[in-house]
Every structure is written in C-alpha cells, then in structure tokens.
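Hi again,

Forgot to attach this to my earlier email, sorry! This is the prediction with zinc ion bound. I've pasted everything inline since the attachment limit keeps bouncing my files.
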Amino acid sequence: MRLIILFLSIVILSSQKSQAWGFYAHQRINRLSVFSLPPEMIGFFKYHIDFMTENAVNPDKRRYAVLGEAEKHFIDLDAYGDSAVHKLPRYWQQALEQYSEAELRSKGIGPWNVYHTKILLTEAMKRKDPKAILRLAADLGHYIGDMHVPLHTTKNYNGQLTNQYGIHGFWESRIPELLSEDYDFFVGKADYLRSPQIEIWNTLAHTHAALDSVLSFEKTISTRFPEDKKYTFEERGGINTRQYSREFTLAYHQALGGQVERQMRRAVKMVADFWYTAWIDAGQPDLDGLIQNKLDFDPEKFDRDEKLKIREHEDGTLAEVSNFSKRQRLLRIGHYFDFRSFGFYSSSSIGLPAISLTFGCSIHKPIGRKTKRKNSPA
Ligand SMILES: [Zn+2]
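Structure tokens for the complex follow:
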C-alpha cells in the first residue's frame, strides 16, 4: 500500500554503513596487509596502496549489481548440520559431487571462492598484468576478510534468529570504527602457504568457533544496559541515526577479550600470506618492473540490479552505501524513501520513544508495521 505522507516523523536507526567487516575495516585490512609483504613485492603494492585501500570494498558493492557475487562472501555452516566446517569438502569439485551447485550457492561459497580468486591472482601475476593483479589482490583481501567474521559463517547472520537484530553491523563496523585506532596491527612477515585451500578452511573453523561468544556476550551485556544506555543517537550525513553506545561497545569488546581486534589481525596476516603465496606460485615475477605512473582502470559499474535478491545484513542502514547519496538526496527533497530494509526497526517495533526527523516523503509500506525480512539466503 502506497501512502503519501507529508511531514512524517520517524526515528532513523542505523547500524552504520556496514557490509562485511564494514567498509572501514575492509579498507584497513587491505592497506595494512601491504606492510607484511617481502621487499620484492612491497614496492609495487605500496605504490598502489591507495588503490588497494579504496577498492577493498568493490566486492560488497558488486553484490547488488552482479549475479553470483553475493554468495562469495559467506557460508552458512550451520545450514549443513553439526560439525559441518570439519566435514564439508575442501575443494569445489569435490563439493559438487556431494551437493548441487544451486544448494552450495544458496548457502554461500566463501571458502571455495577464496581459493578460486587466489588462482586468478596467480594467473594475473604469471601474465604480469598489473591492473588484474591489483584488482584481484584487492578482491582477495576482501573475501579473506569476510572469512574472519563469525557472522559470515551462519544463517543467523544478523542475529535475526536470536532477537539480536543489528549485531552484524555492530561487530564488524561499529566496534572497529570506534576502537581500532588503538589496535596493534603488527603481524610480522607474510608466510608461504603450502595448502592455501586447507588454510582458509582452518581459518573458517576458527572463525566459526567464535560465533557462540559473539552472540552470547551480546545477550549477557544487554541485560546490564537499559535501552537508553545501550544505544545513542549520532548524526550521520545530516541525519540522526541510532547507534550502539560507546559504553556498550566497550563493555562488549572487553567481554569478548578483544576478539574483533584478534580477527582483524588474523585477517591482515592471512591476506598478506595469500598475496605472497600467489606471487611465489606465479614464479616470483618482477613486480617492480610493473610499476607505472598511471594505470587507467576502467571504472567498475555497481548499478543496482533490482532483480537480485541480496541478503542485507546492513539492515537498519538508510540505504546501501553506493546508493546512499542518491537516496538521501531524494529523501531530502521529500520524494522517496525505501522502507524495505527499514521496517523492522520502525519505532513501534522496538518501543523507541524518540521522534527525530520530520520531513515529507512517500513510503511504500505503512509505518509501524513490522516488515518481515527474508531469512533465506540470497
Ligand atoms: Zn563481503
């Protein structure tokens, strides 16, 4: 039902611009990984470190534009039953012998995709193709980063099955953005991985083992914080948004014993290890010889394909980042507002008293009614 409402008052809640690790954390991971590379590699990657940083988030933008991208960022291990992380086939071809491709894709292909991307990077290095090397190394850094986020290993990816809605953005965006300035990111030199595919699965097992504390500590800490202490309001892009409070964030961080920092450090190290391994496997090409003043990259298009049904663990955000300014502009002129990723957080559903924004807009769903999210994978 389409309603036209002129002066509508709503609370805008946000779990920040969160996609997998959040833009901020992905960018830091890619950037920091460069410093663990050996002398033969570091010149080339340092020269292009801004590219590596900025493009660390391309795969997340691509999720909404390219069919087949979304499932590369996660794997719902619990959808396969107990101890799946120890039992699932390590190699894609083996997996296809046990499961249909459709089933595998619907439950996420994260670890297999890491290995596939590593092979593509190795090939690009063999070809000495600087643009492909940079693009694929940036992508690989992103995918490896995702495999370090416990909520990327479960169908309960945003706490939606345990009444902890929004925990995804909290863990991977809010915490790093608030606290990671103080993290220790010295991870040492990159190591060669004899079996990168086995290594990514071992990492996944480690990541998945952390899931229980991600969820249970949030529940425990929440009992100590009334709603008005658990959340705070901050202005973002001229809009008042609801965030987890700094106090709650710190309490959670401490209860987890610095888990987010540890996972970020592990990600930085593993990204460097994979880049280094690709380079060794390619026969150690001379990367310094590939340094060029200017590389003309064809800009990647991230136009949203509305037909793609993508799981949105950044629910609660106004809109996905690549579309953010456009939607915000439309919002400001009182023309349009997309409630599909917002309804769950409508003020009545969580009993929030505040009215923080007044503007004219047209909405696509009545306010105050919970909009059920799809729990099924993208
Ligand atoms: Zn991702």
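The CA atoms of residues 85 and 205 lie 6 Å apart. Strands lie at 3-10, 231-236, 239-244, 357-363.

That should be everything now.

G.
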